[in-house]
Design a protein that fits this description.
The chain is of the alpha/beta class. The chain has helices at about 5-10, 15-25, 25-35, 40-55, 60-70, 85, 90-100, 140-150, 175-185, 210-215, 220-230, 245-255, 270-285, 320-335; strands at about 75-80, 110-115, 130-135, 155-160, 170, 195, 205-210, 235-240, 265-270, 295, 315, 340-345, 345-350. The strands form three sheets. A six-stranded parallel β-sheet has the order 2-1-3-4-5-12, sandwiched between helices. It has a five-stranded mixed β-sheet with strand order 7-8-6-9-10, sandwiched between helices.
């Protein structure tokens, strides 16, 4: 069989016009049935759908619809680091749930991108077919993503990061919240206090935080929460973790607790996962929480593996942050002005903090 013969014998894909003809309606009426743009009678709708089923017509080609609208129907979400680790942090999940809820009015999909291209690679955001961008934080490598979005003329919303003037931001009272939990520990009578922070920059180096390291730090959330703690404890000793994880909390906890002569009576962690790791490190050393060591976290998530304890923490509105970002993206894509929104945390006392013994 020749190529031309093969092609001529291939069944032709049914079109919307075919469906309209079979249903005895105009093409525009058939189009309305599939788009839902205008109401039609139930009988007309049933005739069109029955004709479509008979002809094997699944609906308009979404690629053609995208070309007509000049939109892809996709919003990029740029996450820091490896995507495989992003959802290990329980805060990410409700935030993404909120984001998709906020985008619901658009019927848009979400494309997850990392802000760190591989060696010799160009950022995926450069060519990704997206209508808008949501940046989680805006520091270090994320600023490169911001610049790409600006060059492409894409609407941008930033969650917990400073992207400069004209970019809508979804912010959290990180400094005030960190100061509140620090005041709680101070009011209990603790004087020897240490901190375990989130990473300072995209290099994610673990270790003691010095003024030199702070000058090079680029992650706003870490800096703001540390500033809040220092508002209450100006001389606080702090170590940075490599990630928001229980394993990193264990590493930092051991570093702070290994020497009885310098051991703090309270450790404030910048995430609940880090706090859980500190509790494990303390118990491995034979310390009792909260009798020998008070521990507080930040986020308000459910943490498994800390026994009977209920963590003292600051509860943040992760879902609401994500939804606000999605809603502002939707506003911009409708041609409306977007706004920056600010959220506050709520203190929750648990069983992991108490007055120091002696």
């Amino acid at each position: 069989m020749t190529p031309s013969a093969a092609s001529s014998s291939t069944p032709r894909r049914a079109t919307l016009a075919d469906v309209a003809s079979a249903a005895g309606v105009s093409t525009s009426t058939a189009s309305v049935v599939f788009s839902g743009a205008t109401k039609v009678s139930d009988s007309t709708r049933e005739r069109v759908l029955a004709a479509a089923a008979d002809l094997g017509y699944a609906g308009p080609d979404p690629r053609a619809a995208s070309l007509r609208r000049g939109r892809s129907g996709i919003v990029a979400v740029v996450l820091e680091g490896q995507l495989r680790t992003a959802f290990l942090d329980p805060v990410t999940i409700p935030m993404m749930d909120g984001l998709t809820d906020g985008l619901a009015s658009l019927g848009a999909g979400v494309l997850l991108l990392r802000d760190e291209p591989g060696e010799g690679e160009v950022s995926a955001l450069t060519t990704a077919p997206v209508d808008a961008v949501v940046l989680i934080g805006c520091s270090g490598r994320a600023r490169a993503s911001l610049e790409i979005a600006r060059v492409r003329g894409l609407p941008v919303v930033v969650i917990e990061g400073d992207a400069g003037e004209g970019i809508p931001q979804i912010t959290l009272d990180n400094r005030e919240a960190a100061a509140e939990v620090a005041r709680h520990v101070r009011d209990l009578g603790h004087e020897r206090v240490a901190a375990v922070t989130l990473p300072l920059d995209s290099d994610r180096v673990r270790g003691r935080i010095t003024e030199e390291r702070l000058e090079r730090a680029t992650i706003d959330v870490t800096l703001e929460r540390l500033a809040g703690l220092r508002d209450v404890y100006p001389e606080v000793i702090a170590v940075s973790a490599g990630s928001s994880s229980i394993d990193d909390g264990v590493i930092a906890g051991r570093a702070l607790l290994s020497d009885p002569a310098t051991r703090p009576t309270a450790i404030l962690a910048q995430s609940d996962l880090l706090a859980a790791g500190v509790i494990r490190a303390a118990e491995d050393l034979g310390l009792r929480v909260p009798d020998d060591l008070s521990v507080a976290g930040f986020d308000g998530i459910r943490v498994d593996g800390i026994g009977p304890h209920m963590l003292t923490t600051m509860v943040q509105p992760a879902f609401e942050k994500g939804r606000a970002a999605g809603e502002q993206v939707a506003r911009m894509l409708r041609g409306e002005l977007a706004s920056s929104l600010h959220f506050t945390c709520r203190f929750r006392a648990g069983t992991t903090t108490a007055a120091p013994l002696g």
